[in-house]
Amino acid sequence: MSEEKQAKVKVSKKSRFSPIWIVPIIALLIGLYLIYENYEHKGITIQITFDSGDGLEVDKTKIKYEGVEIGHLTKINLNRDGNNVIVAALIDKEASYLLVDGTEFWIVKPRFEVGKISNLGTIISGAYIKLKPGSGKTKTKFVALKEPPVGDLSLPGLHFTLISDNLGSLQAGSPVYFRKIKVGEIHSHKLKDDNKIYVRAYIEPEYKHLVTDKTKFWNVSGITVDAGLSGVKIHIESFVTIIEGGISFDNPHGQLGNTVQNETIFKLYENRSSAMEEGGLNIVFRVKELGSLKPGAPILYNELKVGEIQDHNLTSNDREVDVNAYIYKDYVHLVKTDSRFWNVSGIKINAGLSGIKIKTESIQTIIDGGIGFSNRWSSGSKQTAPGSVFKIYDSYDSAFRTGSLISIFFKDSKGLSEGSALKYQGISVGTVENVNISENLDKIIVKVRLYKGADKIAKSGSKFWIAEPEIGLGGIKNVGAIIFKYIEVLPGEGTESDQFIGLEKEPVFVNFEKSDGQPVVVSDEENLNITLLSKRLGSVNIGVPVYYKQIEVGKVVGHKLADNAENVEINLVINKKYSALVRDNSKFWNVSGIGLDFYLFGVKAKTESLTSIIKGGVAFATPQKDIGKVVSDGAVFDLHEKPDKKWLKWHPNINYNQ
Amino acid sequence: MEKNGTMGKMNTINYNTAKDLSLVSCEICNSLYDINSFKDQEKAKCHVCGLELHQRKPNSISRTWALLLTSAICYIPANIYPVMVIDTFGNVEAHTIISGVIAFIHSKDYPLALLVFFASIFIPIMKMLSLMILLISVQFEWKWGPGQRNTIYKIVEFIGKWSMVDIFMISILMALVKLGTIVTIVAGKGATFFGLVVFFTMIAASTFDVRLVWDNAVIKDK
Question: Which of A91, A240, A335, B48 minimizes the number of CB atoms within 10 Å of its CB?
């Protein structure tokens, strides 16, 4: 019974297939499917040769096509033969169609983009490999490009090339702006054999129409600082361009030209102003020394910037420097064949009777230098041809000093030097060209170039002297001469001459209020020249006034020891207008210093004038009752120490104005 | 089928198993029946609670083998595929169980490395090996140390629940670390398979009837 049962059980056990076995079968099937799937996705191993493995990492470096990851690096090996790197990459099966002849691979290095902080992943995950499919036969061995290929022409939009001398901080990916809106970007740049940089740029399709044959492109990389008298302007296209560089473009006057095709070549200008200023005039300045004329330095016409210096180079004989300048379109007509240009670089200090003038064209010219020009004296109205060569004068004055050269002999140069001015009435009429000692060392020869139109000064009888500053209570004279010595001239009226003997001292002028305001020199025969005899000179110096009733009527013009040494002879000049006041019985006395009268109730100070306290002076009086005869030149009088009291009471009635 | 003093050498106490006495007990309500009182022993049911009555777990060896095999199959992809994918700033790092342990060792987190190693590698393997040994021993009716084998089984059952530590860790990390582009943790395929390994070994352990160890040991001894 039990055996029967047992047998039954055994049979049933054996025959029974437990449904639980379905579970491992399913697991096995899933496993097999995974293996199959893995095989399917295993992809194709390809080999790419790179120049450098910089940034590549096994497993981490992805291969991307159109932004989609299609594979990754599996191995990096150095290739001893080719001195390069061979990498193995696993490409997804679905992407195998990309692995054909002509497919290009290149490394895309992570780049910190200021404009957008996206793709943070690439910053951390490092470089990746990008590819551009070709269209040949399937292959698995590739040689990578050294640099990213020229922009993908398949992208809609405009592809073109910009030629520049200077890359600035442009790089692949730098933005292209139109009125500060980003409308495209730079794909690549290349230095070609002609030493120019070819920049490949791309404009997005919706902005394509903005680029026309008239469009000008310029570099907006970095920061532009414009310093001028009007202030300092700092110009930044956008924060991005400081670091990444960038290009901006516009159409002159906002007018669109004809549309352009892909592959058009444009010039890339240095900056906006040079880009928009096409059509101006190129001229050349030939100078001996460059000075501070830098590229970008302005060319000024009436202190208005009408052009700029572009660059400079040595002339073919290496002796001079050619400075190439560009005159803006709107001002081309100002440049005539006989326009005169002069250097306005640095600071000009012009010291004169009117004070000290510090003159500079603009702050920019101090630093960058600059050139001024004028058409003063320009006779013709002929416009200059492009490329004309001009001379640059040292200064405005020298630009127009074309008068004759005169020589003046001095005993002492008193600090005169080349460039010192020759002034007449405070106005420069010439410039010292050189100061030399004569061969026998007895005098200084100063050669002065007169300005055009100032030749009238060079007449025989003209008097030249070196101005010296004079400071006194009576006035401050020739302040300018403290700093810069200059020659003053009083033109004569003789025949033309070019050799003069300079005066040792400034001649004494008697400002007799001639109607035309011209000073009259002492030797003028119309004035009354008289001589005073004095025991001592006192403070009667040359130039001190002669007073009549405290009115200045003349001047002391000289003094010397009398021939017999007994007296001092003092020469006076009395304005001819007042010459009738001097009679043969007139009394002269010294009014230098302060006359003090002591009275019971105090002290009375008396002086002819405040000036006479310091400078001294001579006063005279003419008797009231018995008016003497009118004197003529050369009359001699005694100079008294002090006036007699009764002299001061003389008030003769003389009709001197006859 | 009688066993009298079979264990005499080791144990002086004579005993009978319920099976020896043709008895079967209900696993739920513990009602006791004489197996011979049922006409069809295969379809015997408890009169109290209605549960099917078996003297030994039906098809225990076969089922356990099937489940053990399933977990063994699952164990392969569990180790090949990543269990955890960490995406930091787009920098995707996929970790398999072993690479995770290695990563912990590299970052000198030795306790964590040890924990993961034990919970995810050592224990599952030991569990599967133990069950396999038990199954083979029963199938080939080994008489060797039934007591020791009993202990092995008890350990396998007890430790089973702890092998889910790894899965729990990943689940918690996934839920906690969801910072969009910055850091995201995603469970990989491996985690699913690993979960299946643990699941199937647990069921395998529960389908194995440890009493068979003793049945065989006694029979062999006889």
Answer: B48
